[in-house]
Amino acid sequence: MPTSISEEQCERKSRPDRLRAFVIEEALSAGFDICRFTRPDATGPTAERLARFIAEGFHGTMGWMEETAERRAEPGHLWPEVRSIVMLGMNYGPDRDPLEILARRDRGAISVYAQNRDYHDVVKGKLKIVAGKLAARSGADVKVFVDTAPVMEKPLAAAAGLGWQGKHTSLVSREFGSWLFLGSIFTTTEFEPDEPETDHCGSCHACLDICPTSAFPAPYRLDARRCISYLTIEHKEPIPREFRAAMGNRIYGCDDCLAVCPWNKFARSAAEAKFSAREELRAPSLGDLLALDDTAFRALFSGSPVKRIGRDRFVRNVLIAAGNSGKPALARRCGELLADASPLVRGAAVWALSRLMGLEDFAKLARKHLQQETDASVLDEWRIALDERLSA
């Protein structure tokens, strides 16, 4: 004879489902657009892919990726007590085509995600709210992570069903396209995991074709050393000469592979005002940006992720854009930066001027500064630029 299920057993059985529904409700209330659950061991061959990425040197100068590879590949190594991971996404889809600015060569193109407040602060604050309510309701331990910790959010998000990693290696969602900020809550609570999303890229390879620097050696593989986002943000040295012209007017990050994805049609219809761009960062004038000293840079990018790369690296990027602008009127501002305290800035100014000035005027300027310059890297910029101009 079948045994009847007691009220206590029903309560015990329904408790995880109620907690799960509670977390989802709190996540949406906090401002997240999607919330799913996975297990820490659900990312499949992530460790192998990461090891290959590092072994081939695709991480460039990001030494921290190699140093934290073990913890990054296996969430359980980061926190052995974790039993479930809550993956959350926040839509930041733009309200206009982010590629339109690439035709405005006297303006700087800043990646969509960086045109407002630093998403690390926004997302982490909201994660703490949700995690705190989960801990209070369940008594479980929780930890929150946003990008800067050794957590591979994209594979975890794919495992949780937020989307799939597209051929450009970024997450793609059927609901939000390529425009999701990701955050995670590690918890000792056991949640039933969601199913992973199917890869819906199909035969499309638009994201690979549009890359200005051919940073994808194959679908689903990225060589960061060739990526404009890496070059303008992570790379601390002079931009390698082979990539400078291809950078165009991209001065912080690159949206090309994200923006061209056909799935973005859904994200654009759902874009929310909370991530609308600051007007002064939509299409800033290169001339104005070249005039930034450290104080003005910090003021303009207060609360922005751009601030983290510092004024010198940012002005280096702006000078590359100026050199690509075809606007000789910018030469005066570039020339002023030949006296900058930073060799990184002075070297980029040489390259920009070599593209903006006539040969005779540039050669005259070179003779003057070759006598004054003491930094080896800047002297190399002058000599290479002169050789290129004379041999053209």
Question: Care to give the gist of this entry?
Answer:
This protein is an alpha+beta fold.
What layout of secondary structure does this protein have?
Layout: H1 7-30, E1 34-38, H2 46-55, H3 63-67, H4 69-73, H5 75-78, E2 84-91, E3 109-110, H6 119-138, E4 142-145, H7 153-160, E5 164-165, E6 171-172, E7 180-187, H8 206-210, H9 228-234, H10 241-247, E8 250-252, H11 256-259, H12 264-270, H13 279-282, H14 286-290, H15 294-300, H16 311-324, H17 331-336, H18 343-356, H19 359-372, H20 376-391
Parallel strand pairs: 3-8
Antiparallel strand pairs: 1-2, 2-7, 4-7, 5-6
Query: What's the shape?
Result: elongated
Number of domains: 2
> End-to-end span in angstroms?
94 Å
> How much is the average pLDDT?
91
Low-confidence regions? 7-13
Query: What is the helix/strand order?
Result: HEHHHHEEHEHEEEHHHEHHHHHHHHHH
The percentage helix is 40-55%
The total of beta strands comes to 8
Structural class: alpha+beta
List keywords for this structure.
392 residues; alpha+beta; 4-stranded antiparallel beta sheet; elongated
Q: What does it look like?
A:
The strands form three sheets. Strands 1-2-7-4 form a four-stranded antiparallel beta sheet, with helices on both faces. It has a two-stranded parallel ribbon with strand order 3-8. The protein has a two-stranded antiparallel ribbon with strand order 5-6. The chain is an alpha+beta fold and 392 residues long. The radius of gyration is 24 Å and the shape is elongated. It is 47% helix and 9% strand. The longest helix is centred in the first third of the chain and has 24 residues, at 7-30. Strand 5 (164-165) and strand 6 (171-172) form a beta hairpin. The relative contact order is 0.12. Mean pLDDT is 91; it is low at 7-13. It is built from 20 helices and eight strands. The chain has helices spanning 7-30, 46-55, 63-67, 69-73, 75-78, 119-138, 153-160, 206-210, 228-234, 241-247, 256-259, 264-270, 279-282, 286-290, 294-300, 311-324, 331-336, 343-356, 359-372, 376-391, and strands at 34-38, 84-91, 109-110, 142-145, 164-165, 171-172, 180-187, 250-252.
